[in-house]
Amino acid sequence: LDNNYLLFLGIAFLFIGGLDLVHTLAYKGMNVFQGYGTNLPTQLWIAARYMESLSLLIAPVFLSRRLRADLVLMAYSLTTFLVLASVFYWHIFPTCFVEGAGLTPFKKISEYVISIILIGAITILYQKRKEFDESVFQLLIAAMAITIAEELVFTFYIHAYGFSNMVGHYLKIISYYLIY
What we know:
Blueprint: H1 5-25, H2 39-58, H3 69-89, E1 97-98, E2 102-103, H4 105-127, H5 134-153, H6 163-179
């Protein structure tokens, strides 16, 4: 690698993918986490999306800086631990979904904030586009643009198994594919 951008993203997405796995296991039908409702997977989703968007925003720093993989691994391990503890142990992560009422204002506003962070990441990446092979640059921009669309779709769902939720998850799969 000529730079450490992709290495940083690789480490970040290891932990983001881990949160997404727990998000998937958190659905009621999976019967992994007993006693939790639809709020749990929604909280984990928002936490993972914040981590993803902030990682994409920070990653350009490593175009010109040396990456200490051990420190990045420690930072993401600690962050992931704190996220999971805030949801499962301390129960201080903000409520994102209320049964019978739908998405909370925190969840909806978070989706817009995440989209704004991603627009910032696209802007910075565009300024640094000469650091990338053209096809890699286009894939990264497409992944972030699709993630923005996905975030906006997730502001509309009322039911965890509704159409807009399904569309949002399909967009996430496409976005991950483009990143990888």
